[in-house]
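Troubleshooting entry. The earlier prediction with fe (ii) ion gave an output that would not parse, so I re-checked the input for stray whitespace and re-submitted. Clean input:
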Amino acid sequence: MDFEPPFQENYKTLLKNKSDKLGDENGDRQQQSQLMLIEHCELPLIDLSHLKIRGSSVARAKCKQDIVEAAGKWGFFQIVNHGVPTETLESMKHEQTKLFRLPFQKKAELSFLNLPSPSSSSPTKSYRWANPQATCLKQLPWSEAFHIPLASISRMKGNENFRVTMETYGMALANLAASIAVILAEGLGVKGTDYFEENCMSSTCFLRMNRYPLCPLASQVFGLMPHTDTDFLTVLCQDKVGGLQLMEGGRWVSVNPNPNALLVNIGDLFEAWSNGVYKSVKHRVMASQEVERFSMAFFYCPFNHTSIESPLKPALYRSFSFEEYTVQVHRDVQATGDKVGLSRFLIQ
Ligand SMILES: O=C(O)CCC(=O)C(=O)O
Ligand SMILES: [Fe+2]
């Protein structure tokens, strides 16, 4: 299978170090018991058809309230009747599978898809797999991904269908995320804001296509390491396989996959903008020995120069630009393997 990244070959030394696995006798016992006794959770499922202007105002208010409550309690919720056409979703999934089935050597070429070369705020390549900086198995994600700035897809070479599908998908998701952002702002008592309309457009957003290959060492590595998202909102489209877990009340819980729903989660920027009311919750993906998994994350982000400052006072975080945040995250990841994140910007 020439599309498979060479995990085993390239990470031979790390993989030989069995004492390293995710919580064995030498590891953290608490972590081990957590891995074995994971509860499943049913995230709030919100039907966005209630938001229609023609519908009842009571149902509309209740739907908005459900979104606001889920963002504060879980940081995650599922949505149905979200308005993204089924054909658009299906074409994206089809194009995504085709993309990952290309030979590894081709995907890894620097010029593949003609996406932009690394810049200071996004200094890594669009195609990523495993983690060249990993010093132990816990830092080795068993996955490959394309991280695509929507601003640059007009330059994409090759498959015209893919470019058009991605453009349509990006626009639909940017509109969807914008309407959720306004509801969340209203939930904070901030009415009639044009902050999101002015600072976030489809061209400031990113798409990340993830593939989690079968993993022969599923108990030893993650599919994707625990992290929070560096954006305002993420809209995730996942298949029916499952594997996503999130932190709830200090423990990891498994999210039951619902392939008919999109999953929305709060990112770091919204946590800061909401002054901590909405939660950017840690999540991770477990690796699987049996089933391959695909997901697509849409990251709702502002311009690099956009200032993130909560309209609620007194502010918990000092104001920072999106670029300042991403540069700091990158610096911390390089230096410590951990992004640190919002706590860096807390006002003492
Ligand atoms: O694949 C998933 O379910 C989650 C992906 C994710 O968290 C990400 O791309 O940031
Ligand atoms: Fe994520």
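This one parsed fine. The chain is about 30% helix and 20% strand.
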